[in-house]
Amino acid sequence: MRFLALAILLAIGCYFGYEAVEAPDNQLFGKTLVAGAPTEREVALTFDDGPNPPYTDRILDVLRAERVPATFFVVGRAAAAYPATLRRIAREGNALGNHTWDHSHMTLESPAAMGSELQRTDATIARITGIHTHLMRPPFGARDFAVIGEAQKLGYRVVMWSVPLPKDWEQPGDATIAKRVVDNVADGSIIVLHDGNEGILCARDHRPAHDCDRNQDVAATREIVDTLRARGFRFVTIPQLIADADRADEHAKRMAAR
Ligand SMILES: [Zn+2]
Question: Domain 2-257 falls in which CATH fold?
Answer without folding.
Answer: TIM Barrel (3.20.20)
